[in-house]
Amino acid sequence: MEATAHSRFQRYGTRKVGQVLKEIRGKSVLEAERILPMMPRICSTMVSKAVRSAAANLVNLAAKNGHQINPEKVYIKSCWSTMGPMGNMKRMLPAPQGRSYTFKRKVCHLTVIVSDERVAGKGK
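Below the sequence we write its predicted structure tokens.
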């Protein structure tokens, strides 16, 4: 049984979110919750919320179908982040001689899929 959680339009870069996701992929949710607060990335809070939401979705889905799920046996099956729209997040930065530089704020979408079965070959 699988459940999914999405975090959309988050104000973090895809590459840095991907670095955090690489560390928790294939691990149990409890282990991921233990690892994420120690990660030196500000986006780890957002990833932690998405993982907890996906696990709660799985427990609710199992209860709806009449199954019982042990929270210790919930694993992160897959997780990824993709780049969100940056077209309307343009900002200006003062530059020399009255000019201005433009830069774009990064936006990403995060998807976390959890399962009650361990993925073979991933994690411990």
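The mean pLDDT is 92.
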